[in-house]
Design a protein that fits this description.
The complex is a heterodimer of chains A (about 110) and B (about 110). Chain A is mainly β and about 110 residues long. Chain A has no helices and 11 strands. The model of chain A has no long low-confidence stretch (mean pLDDT about 95). By secondary structure, chain B is mostly beta strands. In chain B, about 35% of the residues are buried. Classes of the chains: A mainly beta (about 110), B mainly beta (about 110). Chains A and B meet through strand 4, strand 5, strand 9 and strand 10 of A and strand 3 and strand 4 of B.
Chain lengths: ~110, ~110
């Protein structure tokens, strides 16, 4: 079974631009969560989607948004990028009734 | 979710058992203890979880004290590939793995 796939692996953007990150969950998983990891703040929960609906949301500004498609693939968008958005963005998938989360390798975003 | 306290770092010789402690003195009756680890440049990986009984799987053993205020993750024969940051997370069972709250974890260094 293929794992969680995130693309791209690395991304460089400049301040003010927007970015879209993609995540393909493990086949059969309907829950997709996104996390931001920075050296200063550690791993922080962004949001979770289940069956195309946002089910949980972390404490991030509205510039961070996401969506989930009918095939469970998810995208995360960050608009008006700031230097502080430089981070590793991790996607994780899971199944209801099973509390294991399976993470991808992440997208390393650098904002210059 | 209950707060957890872990030592920031630990060393272990290859082939020896690695015992990683976690303090969760405010844990409530419906909260489980979860362990994840993150190897450099990868997403976190689920290891094991438990409520009150000791648990063992192919990766590790989890020992929870009788009062449930602390636990220990045991890697019975640590290898260099076990070098990672280990996260102890306490949260209620929700039927999903959504919205995990990661602390700062313990950086385990396995040496020859």
């Amino acid at each position: 079974k293929a794992g969680v796939t995130q693309t791209p692996r690395y991304l460089i953007k400049t301040r003010g631009q927007q970015v879209t990150l993609s995540c393909s969950p493990i086949s059969g998983h309907r829950s997709v969560s996104w996390y931001q990891q920075t050296p200063g703040q550690g791993l922080q929960f962004l949001f979770e989607y289940f069956s195309e609906t946002q089910r949980n949301k972390g404490n991030f500004p509205g510039r961070f948004s996401g969506r989930q498609f009918s095939n469970s693939r998810s995208e995360m968008n960050v608009s008006t990028l700031e230097l502080g958005d430089s981070a590793l963005y991790l996607c994780a998938s899971g199944q209801d009734g099973n509390e294991k989360l399976f993470f991808g390798s992440g997208t390393q975003l650098s904002v210059l | 979710d209950a707060k957890t306290t872990q030592p920031p770092s630990m060393d272990c010789a290859e082939g020896r058992a690695a015992n990683l402690p976690c303090n969760h003195s405010t844990i409530s009756g419906n909260e489980y203890v979860y362990w994840y680890r993150q190897i450099h440049s990868q997403g976190p990986q689920y290891i094991i979880h438990g409520l009150k009984n000791n648990e063992t799987n192919e990766m590790a053993s989890l020992i929870i004290t009788e009062d449930r205020k602390s636990s220990t993750l045991i890697l019975p024969h640590a290898t260099l590939r076990d070098t990672a940051v280990y996260y102890c997370i306490v949260r209620p069972y929700t039927g999903t793995a959504s919205k995990l709250t990661f602390g700062t974890g313990t950086r385990l260094q396995v040496t020859l």
